[in-house]
Amino acid sequence: MRTRLQRFSSISVLFLTIVLIAPTAAAVGSDSLSDADSHETNNGGPGACAVAPPVIGAPSAGGGAGLSPLWLPPGGVVRLAGPDRFATSVAISQEFYAPGVDAVYIARGDAFPDGLAAGPPAGREVAGPILLTEKDALPVEVADELARLQPKQIFILGGSAVVSESIAWQISVYTTGSVTRLAGLNRYETAASVSSRFYSSIYNGNYAVCIARGDAFPDALAGGPLCSTQRGPILLTPSDALPEVVTHEIDSLQLTSTGTFYILGGEAAISPAIEQWLVNYVNPGADHDPRVVRLSGEDRFETAAEIYMRRAGCWAKVAFIATGRNFPDALAGGAPSARLDAPILLVDTTHIPPSTAAALTDLKPATIYILGGENTVSTQIADALQTFIVP
After folding, report:
1. Which has the closest alpha carbon to 142: 153, 150, 151, 131?
2. Pairwise CA distance, residues 353 & 140, whole Å
3. Which domain holds residue 133?
4. What backbone torsions phi and psi does residue 234 show, to the nearest 5 degrees?
5. Residue 350's pLDDT is what?
6. CA distance 302 to 349
7. Could you give the percent of the chain with pLDDT greater than 90?
8. Mind spelling out the 3-state secondary structure of 128-170?
């Protein structure tokens, strides 16, 4: 299901923009999941544009099809949505992917942790959509989409307590390849398992490693496209200290001397102690190092915009817009946004935050994809987004 939104008159659009874009950052309010002291944006820093945008239809690093060779930027504001989160993930898949994809990633639709790490590899390493499922029942529309896609292989994100063995058996009929479960005893081990499968085992010396809080979704989801462009994984952590499984995976990745650690979120999300551990990892005894970069704002919306600013001037002229208050639609949008080198920016329930508006003004997108239905991103916000389109 796809809806192409029509332009209003310039007068109507201007009015909507005034109403829906909050006048100050304070109007957005603070957010305990990603509040932080402000940090300088390392815009244009080392490696900011290190990876060129992929050619549409070209092979992914996995060797098969990337995005559909029939896909062309439609221009304007396009809503990708279905009647529920499962159907929305199918709508996103149908927009971007043709049969014969390298892989499909199956994630739980009502729990975010195990799916957070999937965006970067689904975007670039072994390309394919992220489809959502219930724990014990495969939605009919998802089964139909698997039948259409005929993926070369399928990855399940999370253990059998997250996505059941019954689901694993059901989806096996939709591929002639393997069905591989990427899982650990908890969300941190699962993210490390994803990293090990797609990064450690393919090559060492990644350009970047992204560190995100594992019990909150906004920063990790917004960071997925950046991590993908830098050919690096997202590793999850509690806010106060890196788990042993994460430090072990960092060792396995063998980050090169020119690589970067990106900390996604402020000091309430990822503590200064973790930041100092990373600094000491790359430069023992130092108080700071330019290879450890914190991307954060006063809330989740500003943090997503700061992630955008890290590669300002390097992104494709496409933006993905999702609600910052729930995860399923942005989770499903993580694969195509990463493949297109397009940012995921967040909006609030009733307005476009100033930081998101500033990022869109800077990007000058020809196409804006809204992820999710009108209950998550309202028609008023959709209308206001028209003002940022630059054909």
Report:
1. 131
2. 36
3. 2-388
4. -105, 125
5. 86
6. 15
7. 69
8. CCEEEECCCCCCHHHHHHHHHHCCCCEEEECCCCCCCHHHHHH
φ/ψ (deg, to 5) at 287:
-85, -25
| 3-state secondary structure (DSSP) of residue 333 | helix
d(CA 177, CA 299): 42
H helix or E strand, kind and range, residue 212: strand 208-213
> Is residue 368 helix, strand or coil?
strand
- In angstroms, the CA 217 to CA 34 distance is 10
Partners of 108 in beta bridges: 133
Compute CA distances 315 → 97, 173, 215, 309, 310, whole Å: 21, 37, 28, 10, 10
pTM: 0.84
Query: What is the number of residues in the chain?
Result: 391
DSSP state letter for 115 = G
Does the structure show a pLDDT above 50 at 139?
A: yes
- State how far the Cα of 122 lies from the Cα of 102, in Å rounded to an integer: 9
Diameter of the chain measured on Cα atoms: 59
pLDDT band at 66 (very low <50, low <70, confident <90, very high): low
Confirm if 131 and 154 have CB atoms less than 8 A apart.
no
Cβ proximity of 381 and 353 under 8 Å: no
- Tokens of residue 338, six digits: 């990463």
Integer Cα distance of 266 and 254 in angstroms: 25
Angle at the Cα of 378 from the Cα atoms of 306 and 307, rounded to 5 degrees: 10
Count of the separate structural domains present in the chain: 1
**pLDDT tens-digit series, residues 238-249:** 999 999 999 999
Q: How far apart are CA 74 and CA 171, in angstroms?
A: 32
Distance, CA of 279 to CA of 285 (rounded, Å): 8
